[in-house]
Amino acid sequence: MTTTTTASTTGHRGGTAAMSALALGGFAIGTTEFATMGLLPQMADTFDVSIPTAGHAISLYALGVVVGAPLIAGLAAKLPRKGLLIGLTIALAVGNGLSAIAPNAGLLVLARFVAGLPHGAYFGIAAVVAAALVPPERRGTAVSRIMVGLTLANLVGVPVVTAAGQRVGWRAAYVAVAVIAVVTTLAVARWLPHLPAARDASVTAELRAFRRPQVWFALVTGMIGFGGMFAVYSYISPLTTEVAGLPGGAVPWVLAVFGLGMTIGAAVGGRFVDRSVMGTVFGALVSVAAVLAVFGLTARFPAAAIGSVFLLGFASQILASALQVRLMDASPDAPSLASSSNHSALNIANGAGAWLGGLAITAGWGYPATAWVGVALSLAGLAVAGLSVLVARR
Prior knowledge:
Elements: H1 2-7, H2 12-38, H3 40-47, H4 51-54, H5 56-75, H6 81-100, H7 105-132, H8 139-168, H9 171-191, H10 203-207, H11 213-225, H12 227-233, H13 236-243, H14 251-275, H15 277-298, H16 302-330, H17 335-365, H18 369-393
Helix pairs in contact: 2-7, 2-8, 2-9, 5-7, 5-17, 6-7, 6-9, 7-8, 7-17, 8-9, 8-14, 8-16, 11-16, 11-17, 11-18, 12-17, 12-18, 14-15, 14-16, 15-16, 15-18, 16-17, 17-18
């Protein structure tokens, strides 16, 4: 592909700077996606709605990702990668600015939908670009490096903006993300090399990815299996305070623990993926299910709950990286759309996990019941992954 040839001429220093610029965009996106979950109680108070109702902001952000990822990646198949990534970071800044000034819950939900539109396309195209900057055998490591921005968001960005949101108002969190998105735009413009689309790129060529059964198996694995994590993480704030009995000031620290798990998962997960993509998918799904089961049994005990949150971040991040590379492998001639669609799948998981977890809560089963919803979703995703292997062997 033209992109690969052009990127391969990038020097080591330039490649590192380009990777860092792409990771900064991941930092902005990760912060805006996950900070909402830690600020749901404040949003609910502002608009005088219940926490599950405020959780619709999470679901509509996820819907924005689901719609935006394939739509943008497909329609923009012929655009130069650098210009497209710049446009996506500008859109991210606009969506978060609108979120910060939303006057009511309805418009906040709409603004979160807008903010979600560039999410999947950015990560998908950034992953393809990152893979083009390194030798083929190091694709897993390259994708994980881009995902480090997302993990650092959970380690640093989310706790900081959550703490700030609790002190000066949740709107400040979205203002901060908008500023980071602007800085990302400048960094991408400065450091990313010129990367034209492949000569044979077209909407039709990209859509051919969806003719491949293994692409659909990978997407459905993410849609279902990753929902297990979101069923719990969407309600991490009340789980921390109302179930584990920790003060509200502990929520940012618990979010940081989750982010630390994700960061370590990103650091080591790429090596696992480079060795065996599907083996990593299976191992990560089993690990997520096991951690959620332990969490469901021990959520009342602060130390055990915090340990489970760390392990949940660790295993979930490894799963995300593995699914990203799996989709790129399953559709080598249309990697942008397939890779971007991974984030559509993961955000269907986001919305579905939050919704199903909310149903368990409103049914009166309590916040710990979200963990058992998560176990069921993780095991269902494992079954889909197993079926994909059986079909591939026929």
